[in-house]
Amino acid sequence: MGLLLLQFVLSGISRGHVQDTGLFRAWTAFAEDHQLREYYTTELYVDYPPVYLYVLFTLGKLLKFLNISPDTGLYLACIRSIPIFFDGLTAFFVYKIGQNRIGQTKALVLALLCAVNPAQMLNSTIWGQIDSVVTFFTAIMLIMLQKKQYAGSFTLLAILFLTKPQTVMFAPLLCFTFFFDCLHSFRDGEEKRKLLWQGILSVLAVLAVLLLVPLPITGGNHDLLLEKYKHALSLYPYATLNAPNLYGMLGGNWVADSEKLLFFSYKTWGFLFIVVLSLSVGYVSYHDRERKQIFNLGILTVTGIYVLGHGMHERYLAPALLLFLLAYLYSGDKKLLLFYGGFSLAMFIASAWVLKLNWVNAFISGDNLSFQLLSFCNVVLFLFWVLYTVRQQFKKEKLEKEERLKETVMEHNIFPVQKPAPQTRLVRLDYLLMVLLTVFYALFGFYRLGSDSVPETGFYAETPGESVVLDLGKVSKARQLYVYTGWIDRRSDDLEVLRDLYIDYSVDGETWEMVREPFVLDSVFMWHVCRDFPEDFRYVRLTCDDGRFYLNEAAFFGETESERFPIQAVESTNPTATNLIDEPEKVTYEFTWYETAYFDEIYHPRTAFEFITHRYPYENTHPPLGKAIIACGMLLFGVTPFGWRFFGTLCGVLMVPLVYVMGKKMLKKTSFAFLAAFVFSFDFMHLAQTRLATIDSYTAFFVMGMYLFMFLYIEKNFYETGVKKTLPPLLASGICFGLGAATKWQGIYAGFGLAFLFFFSLARRYAEYRRARKEPEMPTAEAVIKNFKPMAMKTICAGFGFFVLVPAVIYFLAYIPAMWSESTGLSFFFTNQSSMYNYHANLEAPHPYGSAWWQWPLDYKPLYAYSANRDFVPPGTSMGITSFGNPAIWWLTIPVVFWSLWQLWKNRKHLDLGLLTVVVGFFSLYVPWIFVTRTAFIYHFFPCVVFVVLMIGFYFKNEQEQEKVSPRWTWAYAVLVFALFLLFYPVLTGMAIPTGYAMWLRWIPGWVLG
Fold first, then answer.
1. Omega into 518 within 30° of 0, i.e. cis?
2. What pLDDT sits at residue 68?
3. Which helix (H) or strand (E) holds 24?
4. How, if at all, do strands 877-878 and 993-994 pair?
5. DSSP secondary structure letter of residue 314
6. Strand, coil or helix: what is 166?
7. Phi, psi for residue 130 in degrees, rounded to 5
């Protein structure tokens, strides 16, 4: 009672929704001097059906009698007291139902939760809308429908339709329910007569309501009412009106519903989804003879149309909230309260947002990223609820069937179904070897990874023609100007990253001479040197041709490093100019890859920096997850080479235990698991590529995860374990697939292999099912025959969710850093997909180190990723970074692939699932490149290497088990791999070595090693 009183007081002082408040006040005050029939015949704007107008008319007469002025807060509070009263009635209703179902104390708590729901209170108390009235009677209608009181439920629906037109959404639910009840009772004469009588009463009651209830306001001229409904339908022709739903997520808020979205208009999509939802309601109604799902069907109707239908307002979700509470009370499923909370929060945010903007006469634009994210969350919440409800509906039946099947199989272990592989657990020795190997490799991986001390703050030139003057304090013999470029924006008319820096020098600060025209800055995170000063000077003026770029530091040298000329002062109107000389200790005279970006690091770390600073992403030819991970390293360790390389190298380190686990699970023995991990650890590209801040490391890592978990899945058999126990590795594989796809589209290639393995596993289950049908006398055959179809369908549905829906969500979420950048929004997500496709499909840019797919296993053309600045490399010395494969591994690719194919064919009746997984993984990642016509590089083979290594492991295991090869040769091979790794380590990590040594390592003419 106290809460209702508080709401009443707040309602009197609340401004509410300006337009709605004005209308409700005017309709109520209209009753003071007019008759009911004049509502639709005067110039007063009225867009409501009759029923609530009757309520307001009666209230208006009463308030006139009490002499309460329409201009007072009390008058407004009295109008809003109606929905406030129904708030309280709804809470009491929940309490009375809950008393007998969850106990008095819990029912009281739930009722209080209902009463203080912020979304509900805002809607009734502050906004003053009547959704609580409609919600309450909607719940009564569904309870009557559950009890098969059709006449009452149809009558109530007709009354609700004359209160708010959108309640017509419940018509399919009532009609389908009644129709299928009639269908099910066709052979029961007595039941059929009852339903026939109920149907006749329902039709008469609906007709009576629709014809008689409007009479006082229409005077028998029902055309007036029809015109109101037509007007209401045409009033808001928009995809969505502040409802955070599918169209809000796609930028359709306040966008005309006639505009196209893909093939159809928003309006057509809305109608199509409503038809699909109605048919879904009918399907469930047909199977739900006991009406246990009636509240879930009500929720599906409201939330489904709200999320997928067009023309929705932010408040139309209100009836679903009470239905969630009723579904909880009737089912006892506490997780429904989480959905209740989630949808309540979404409705509250949307309503409060709209209300706040209404006070300043503003709207939420369609491209508002925050609203699109809220819409996305609402859509995801709806999808999760649908999946959860479907799962719960069949859960009991599934558990019973699977338990019976499990007992049958355990008792009669006769029928030849695939037995789940015994779990190959990691023992203490495995963990010890794995840790030691990982730490040992990490020493190589992180040794001299990159500098953690480079200039990070800078002079930010914001406008074209900005100048800064550097004062050396006196005339000096400086001859070299060093500048470190931070971020450089792309030009507006092309994709080039460059700025023309004009450098002038002066002795007196008045007469200036130009050094050169221009000095081009064409890369980021790098030192640039100007050596064109012909004479002594004191001042240097730097002028940019365009804005939006950073110069992080400047320094002057003479002819050598020892001749350094400190900058004494900086003159500029830009307050950031002093940042040019604030990090002198970080100036490096002889700079290499250690202090600067190299190869594609000019793209990916730059884009990661743009994510951090919310700038438009330059590198958008791949999905953004990899760059977002690089950005995390920058946030932790600074915008330094160590920072942008850290997580890629860490990923390379973590690949070691991951390959070990793959080896142990697939090869089943500690010795061969260690062999696979050891060989992979000391592959050349594993080191060189993961120390380079590009996204390929993450792609390879996620691909490993995909196939590890898919292998764990195909080892299982749902006949033996039940469907539920087979799903965790399948979900994990799907998550890795989503992460891989969100990093690089090469991860999608792996999806073909995953799909093959998934359906291959189902095909084996189907083969066992066919065998059972041929031999039905077997003890387990009956259970297999009975359970195959439901288990297969559940597995397929899970596969769709895990490999389509979950990856789609991950892929979309990966774009949040990009969509938060300047000049982007949700539209960037969609336009980027087409731009990525067009880029890769039409790329015709030859590269000196590009190579064809057939050259990769031969190690024919390595990637020369870094060429040293010859100014700092003494004669007779070579320095460079080359990324390619360890010949002891890569040159075995073709032989072990053919050997593996032969083994699979030879043992096709008793397939080794581990070897099958490895072969499928290899071809899924390699074969697509045969059909790619754009320039490719040897590092595109990197994700395939783990499968080559595992095939080598299978080969040595097979040969040892057949005693064809001594274990000594196996470990001799491992020693060879490591020896070559040590031999080539300098050219993989940019160490300075004698040129003769580099030439000696050049085993193939195409190898460039510094």
1. yes
2. 85
3. helix 18-29
4. antiparallel
5. T
6. helix
7. -105, 25
Which residues have a Cβ under 8 Å from the Cβ of 500 and sit 6 or more positions away?
518, 519, 520, 521, 544, 545, 546
**Region of 44 on the Ramachandran plot (φ > 0 left; ψ -120 to 50 alpha; else beta):** beta
DSSP state, 219? T
Do 46 and 224 contact (CB within 8 A), yes or no? no
> Under a CB-based contact definition with an 8 Å cutoff, are residues 363 and 257 in contact?
no
| Token couple for 427 | 């023992």
CA distance 79 to 397: 50
- Torsion of Cα atoms, 270 then 271 then 277 then 278, to 10°: 160
Q: Are 713 and 725 in contact (CB under 8 A)?
A: no
Structure tokens at 704: 């490993």
- CB within 8 A of 559, min separation 6: which ones? 479, 480
Query: Residue 674 has what pLDDT?
Result: 96
Residue 836: CB atoms within 10 A of its CB come to 15
- For residue 932 the two structure tokens come to 């790619």
The Cα 649–Cα 601 span in angstroms is 14
pLDDT of residue 410: 45
Average pLDDT, the chain: 87
Scan for tokens 């062999």, then name that residue.
675
What count of Cα atoms within 13 Å lies in the side-chain half-sphere of residue 708?
Answer: 20
Q: What CA–CA distance (Å, rounded) separates 306 from 309?
A: 6
Residue type, 878: S
The per-residue pLDDT for range 363-402, each reduced to its tens digit, is: 888 888 888 889 989 998 999 888 888 877 766 555 555 5
Cα 766 from Cα 758, distance rounded (Å): 13
pLDDT band at 409 (very low <50, low <70, confident <90, very high): very low
Other Cβ atoms within 10 Å of 497 Cβ, number: 20
Query: Which residue reads 């990324």 in tokens?
Result: 883
- Amino acid identity of residue 304, one-letter, is G
Amino acid at 870: R
Count of C-beta atoms within a 10 Å radius of residue 689: 24
Q: Which residue has the tokens 């069907």?
A: 297
Residues 751-771 pLDDT 10s = 999 999 999 999 999 988 888
Task: List strand residue ranges (DSSP E) for 458-497, in order.
Answer: 459-461, 467-476, 480-488
Q: What is the pLDDT of residues 507-539, one digit of tens each?
A: 998 899 998 778 888 889 999 999 888 899 999
Matching residue, tokens 């580099």: 998
Residue that has been written with the tokens 């953690």 in this structure? 452
Rounded to an integer, the average pLDDT of 295-306 is 91
Give the residues across from 467 on adjacent strands: 543
Q: In angstroms, rounded to a whole number, what is the distance separating the alpha carbons of residues 450 and 594?
A: 5
Alpha helices in 288-368 (DSSP H): 294-308, 318-331, 336-358
In DSSP notation, 843-891 reads -----TT---GGGTTTT-S-EEEEE--GGGS-TTEE-EEEE---HHHHT
How many CB atoms within 10 Å of residue 963? 7
Tell me the chain's radius of gyration from C-alpha atoms: 36
Q: Terminus-to-terminus CA distance in the chain, angstroms? A: 84
